[in-house]
Amino acid sequence: MQEERILSSEDDTIIFAKELAPKLRKGDVLALYGELGAGKTFFTQQLCKFLGVTENVSSPSYVLMNEYVGTYIIHHLDLYRLDAAEEVLELGLYDLYENAITIIEWPEIANGMLPKNTIHIYFEFIDQNRKVRISRK
Ligand SMILES: Nc1ncnc2c1ncn2[C@@H]1O[C@H](COP(=O)(O)OP(=O)(O)OP(=O)(O)O)[C@@H](O)[C@H]1O
Ligand SMILES: [Mg+2]
User: How far apart are CA 7 and CA 129, in angstroms?
Assistant: First the structure.
């Protein structure tokens, strides 16, 4: 699966999240790539809303991980501040996947620890716009 779409406004991101949410299943892992401010957290906030989370979803940059409960248990991670794969292991990444939906911002450092069927989502700036590319094996 490969798909690309332009996200020229927050509303576009909201529609994208709304379309993706009902396709997700327990055990799914989403890896969100993209530079600072590309829109990873904003997308996650919208996705969580469409997955039934009512509480405020904040950026996990400092706490590394937040857990929410909606239709599913949702783990929201941001690995930006980690600089070794061992630190990812210490987080217990593998144990998080089961029985939940796991969303990972800055997933590069966990590259070898993502399930095969991870949904990779790349957020990019193009001109004044944003673009998103979705790929899943
Ligand atoms: N499609 C969009 N169009 C316009 N603005 C957007 C869009 N998506 C997100 N934004 C805005 O961009 C800003 C930064 O977004 P966000 O915090 O989600 O980035 P991020 O990728 O999580 O960054 P970081 O790497 O620092 O965690 C937010 O103010 C958000 O509202
Ligand atoms: Mg973020």
Answer: 7
